[in-house]
Write a structure and sequence with these properties.
8 strands, alpha/beta, about 40% helix, single chain, TIM Barrel
Length: about 260
């Protein structure tokens, strides 16, 4: 049965952890959905992971919509969440227009949007107009210059800012909040003080769920290697070895064989 935002929200009260991974294409989404992943996120990370960009800033609504359509076709159970990319929600009206492209036109079940107090009116407008929203606070990749990522929330002012954002997001009606690169103790505090579930990435084990970039857990290397990633496979070498074997067979004239020919 297809999961809904309400299903994800209610997992916290039942003490059930939420699993989330990024997905950008049909076959990967099909496999992750079959594996039981609860939430598939079409992240604007696709710019860095798939397109070779240095940041997420080059990703457009059209890019996210394109990949969302593929993931949505594959998701029989998982909730599909599409990122609102950089500068796609400067005003409440623009936020709603672009969110409708991702949800109504592309098949997402919800959108994820970065920020708290600074985008209060945008989130309010989305929720009022029936767009399910996942909040995202802590480190905001769209606001990071280059690759200068750091843990956010170590100082008291930063910690209080995150708490303020979390409570605001809850009051606005988001059904989940992503906490990125914040101290584990702070993530635990946020998780305890809001009713909606928290989904951590680099935020310790006390959050209500976890999210990672799928290429990271599969061992496909990138230009960054975050401390919070756990690799479950080494697909980079598997793919390389397969390609090398193919090249050897073609060069040697052993592929295709008679059996592989018509």
């Amino acid at each position: 049965m297809k999961l809904t935002p309400d299903d994800i929200y209610s997992k916290k009260a039942r003490g059930e952890k939420i699993t989330a991974l990024t997905a950008y294409d049909f076959p990967t989404a099909r496999i992750l959905d079959g594996a039981g992943v609860d939430v598939l996120v079409i992240g604007d990370s696709l710019g860095m992971v798939l397109l070779g960009d240095e940041t997420t800033h080059q990703v457009t609504v059209s890019d996210v919509a394109y990949h969302t359509k593929a993931v949505a076709k594959a998701a029989q159970r998982a909730l599909v969440v599409a990122d609102m990319p950089y500068r796609s929600y400067l005003t409440p009206e623009e936020a709603l227009s672009n969110a409708r492209i991702l949800v109504r036109d592309s098949g997402a079940d919800a959108v994820k949007i970065e920020g708290g107090v600074a985008i209060e009116e945008q989130i309010r407008h989305l929720v009022r107009n029936g767009i399910p929203v996942v909040g995202h606070i802590g480190v905001l990749p769209q606001s990071v210059e280059g690759k200068k990522y750091r843990v956010f929330g170590k100082s008291e002012p930063e910690a209080e800012s995150i708490m303020k954002d979390a409570k605001l997001l809850e009051s606005l009606g988001v059904f989940a909040i992503v906490l990125e690169c914040v101290p584990g103790t702070l993530a635990a505090r946020v998780t305890a003080e809001v009713k909606c579930p928290t989904i951590g990435i680099g935020a310790g084990a006390s959050t209500d769920g976890q999210i990672l970039v799928v290429h990271d857990i599969l061992g496909i290397r990138s230009s960054v290697s975050p401390r919070f990633v756990r690799r479950y496979a080494d697909l980079e070498n598997v793919i390389k070895q397969a390609a090398e074997g193919y090249c050897r067979d073609v060069a040697a004239g052993t592929f295709p064989s008679q059996k592989e020919s018509f």
